[in-house]
Design brief:
- 2 copies of one chain form a homodimer.
- Among the domains of chain A are: 95-213, Uridine Diphospho-n-acetylenolpyruvylglucosamine Reductase, domain 3 (2-Layer Sandwich), CATH 3.30.465.10; 219-404, Vanillyl-alcohol Oxidase, Chain A, domain 3, CATH 3.40.462.
- In chain A, 36% of the residues lie in helices and 20% in strands.
- In chain A, helix 8 packs across helix 10 (284-297), helix 9 packs across helix 11 and helix 12 runs antiparallel to helix 13.
- By secondary structure, chain A is an alpha+beta fold.
- At the A-B interface, strand 9, helix 7, helix 8 and helix 14 of A face strand 9, helix 7, helix 8 and helix 14 of B.
- Chains A, B: Keywords: FAD, Flavoprotein, Oxidoreductase.
- Chains A, B: One of its GO terms (molecular function) is FAD binding.
């Protein structure tokens, strides 16, 4: 009996897509420079039992399975391989429970981040993780890549909000990990092991998520600096003095100019770095005044604090437009995701500028500065083989620089296909061996998202 | 060559203890009802290289190794087994780095929790995890058991503060996990796997810890309730309304009376439950007023907000004395550590009272109420075999009740020897099989803390 016939035994017809014109549209996530193969079939289960049937079938027939959320990932972790079964979780999109006393939500993996955020807001609650793609990305994908966002400097990443999981294992068995309690230390933390595992250990079919009380409306400030070093000095001072900004973002000269060119934001061309800080504290104006003074002391030429939410939105708009603006510079972009200790941020930014010059490329950087998490975006002409080669080489130089500064090759985007050679360099041989050992425990046949991570 | 001679090849004489009168004093942690064997040797290394030598030796000779911190644990995880090598990390007690910009500390495992707390305070920083034993317990032990404390309701547990680890593996190789950056998602989260693993996967020899800015001085409130149900209703309301207390503790009638009997605290004997809340916010008085009003609405007969730090300390003293007071009720105590969703806290407390009645025992409960984490403390006469049997049986009933209410058998004390049969019940066969698989990857010879956890 072949794969499709087996699948049909436990799935309705509409859950199985085999038309190559349609299945082909499931081949990629949003990463550049990552190969993708042609899936044999795409399945869209709606229940845990259906996922179990799919995995039992895949195990029996030794078919590789590529789990997918909303395919907004930036590392190729959701890319299809030739002949694989694409397991899309987008139809499992129910919010099962929102509990204000226990401050938890129980959700299926296909729930869109923004849908959950709005739903919990109605109960006075807050689900902090806010990837830029939050209107499109799914909670399952967020868990798979351990996504971050702008809020992380105050609220941490997705991993810190996952309390428990239901996971369908490679062989179709159902595993429940973790808890719905505030605390719990019974056994090894398997929940955390699945977060960021990019679909390589099992299929997350349900998650218990921690929620926070909804904070007050945030108020932002923008500060213009004559050098990235001065802006980074301000970042270090802000964090060393114990401030708790809800976001602390930095745009470099290239990003500022790209946004100016696209949207006439009126930022002076002499600005070498723009720092954006926001507070969702009870007295945000007082926090902005203190942080504004630190910016001025660090050399800011202009500090503009918002007085209303509308003014805050306007200030943050430049940051939101950055990637779109950089995408207009050349025909293609490659976005990197190197995170360094925030005390090394200035070196990371200066080093990235030197790499851009070395390769004769435009590289714009926006950064979650408070976290030391930079997103250098290499702009290049994909039709020009030499420029493409230089773009790829600069990307490697940027990761090498990040590691040299005591950082990591990925702060929040994950490894996928894009960075798997670099993962081995970051982990070293002992770490890599243990990670492979864990993979083998959960997926002895190697059918779960093969070719990713390692 | 025998074990001691091999050890001497890489350790100074004073690091090797073999006198049975001395080594015997390393046999136990502070758990009741847990067997302990006689160690063959106790070693007290001061360097990573010495730990590597010890583990290489243990691997060559297949000697079981029991890692120990300050032995303040409450589950027997640090208890010796017959013929084992006790590996005490207490001499590795250096604070290597405190970095206010990156908000991290780098420490060796033997650093005492309170010593680290005071050291980071001097830099305006805060290391939140605060087990009751914080003046004695070590960071390595805190990591091994994923310890909690009073602050967890606002600041979370030890696990949330461990960014990266250096670990000596069973065979002596050195593994570095995690990062010193604010974010990072490169590969599976091995750091988190070690936290709470009770020395069963490797020997933590260095940790990178996240720090917070030091919060304002906290201010507390005490509220007396005519029933535990009313106190639990107040807890649910406080948390559902979005308050962020820095502690939210509950004492039941038995605990209150024990403290009264010991310290003449003057709490009215009609009080069935005492709730203590504290805030370290910029305006604690306003928060206390709001929470006091919620307590009154839930039926509190008396609400006493502190106006100064000294008054706060006085209010919290009753809670601090609880365990000591309960230890005076009978010759022995067994402290449990069941955590339930906070919405089920009233059922847990009423159920525990029913279990005390069923077995004719005194069981006092203090609880980290905001976390739903209860510490039922069974008071019994250890010289009375029947009462001891009933104490043990009630302990099991309490864990069964916790699981039935959607909770966990351990919120913060760990599994050790005490709860290993119960761990299997909480995890289920699939979870247990995977956990054993992970153990085998890290410790194929089974020499690391055998007989614990599983």
């Amino acid at each position: 009996m072949d794969l499709i016939a087996r699948l049909r035994a436990g799935l309705p017809d509409e859950a199985i897509l085999t038309d190559p014109d349609i299945t082909g549209s499931y081949a990629n996530d949003m990463a550049s420079f990552c190969e993708a193969g042609t899936p044999a079939v795409v399945v869209l289960p709606r229940t845990v039992e259906q996922v179990q049937h799919i995995m039992r079938t895949a195990t029996e027939l030794r078919v590789p399975v590529v789990p997918q959320g909303a395919r907004t990932g930036l590392s190729g972790a959701a890319n299809a391989s030739d002949g694989c079964l694409v397991l899309s979780l987008v139809k499992m999109d129910r919010i099962i429970e929102i509990n204000p006393v226990d401050r938890i939500a129980v959700v299926e993996p296909g729930v869109i981040n923004a849908v959950l955020s709005r739903a919990v807001n109605e109960h006075g609650l807050y689900y902090p993780p806010d990837p830029s793609s939050w209107e499109q990305c799914s909670i399952g994908g967020n868990i798979g890549t351990a996504s971050g966002g702008l809020c992380c400097v105050k609220y941490g990443v997705t991993a810190e909000y996952v309390l428990g999981l239901d996971v369908v294992l490679a062989d179709g068995r159902l595993l429940t990990t973790g808890r719905r309690t505030a605390k719990g230390v019974a056994g090894y933390d398997l929940t955390r092991l699945f977060v960021g595992s990019e679909g390589s250990l099992g299929i997350v079919v349900r998650a218990v998520l921690a929620l926070k009380p909804e904070p007050p409306q945030q108020l932002a400030l923008a500060a213009e600096f004559p050098s990235t070093a001065a802006a980074c000095e301000a970042v270090c001072e802000i964090m060393a003095r114990g401030h708790a900004p809800a976001l602390l973002e930095l745009m470099d000269r290239t990003s500022i100019r790209a946004v100016n060119a696209m949207a006439q934001m009126g930022l002076p061309d002499s600005t070498e770095a723009l720092l954006l800080a926001a507070f969702d504290t009870p007295e945000p104006a007082a926090d902005l005044a203190a942080v504004g003074a630190l910016c001025t002391a660090a050399g800011a030429t202009e500090v503009v604090p918002a007085e209303t939410a509308a003014e805050s939105d306007l200030l943050l708009q430049a940051r939101r437009l950055t990637l779109t603006a950089l995408e207009r510079v050349k025909s293609a972009t490659m976005i990197d995701d190197v995170c360094v200790p925030r005390s090394r941020l200035a070196e990371m930014l200066d080093g990235t500028a030197a790499i851009a010059e070395k390769y004769g490329l435009t590289i714009g950087v926006c950064a979650h500065a408070g976290d030391g998490n930079t997103h250098p975006t290499v702009c290049f002409d994909a039709a020009d083989p030499d420029e493409s080669r230089r773009a790829r080489a600069s990307f490697d130089d940027i990761m090498a620089l990040g590691l040299q500064l005591g950082g990591t090759i990925t702060g929040e985007h994950g490894v996928g296909v894009l960075k798997k050679e670099w993962l081995a360099r970051e982990l070293g041989p002992v770490g890599l061996e243990l990670q492979r050992g864990i993979k083998d425990i959960f997926d002895p046949l190697g059918i779960l998202n093969p070719g990713k991570l390692f």
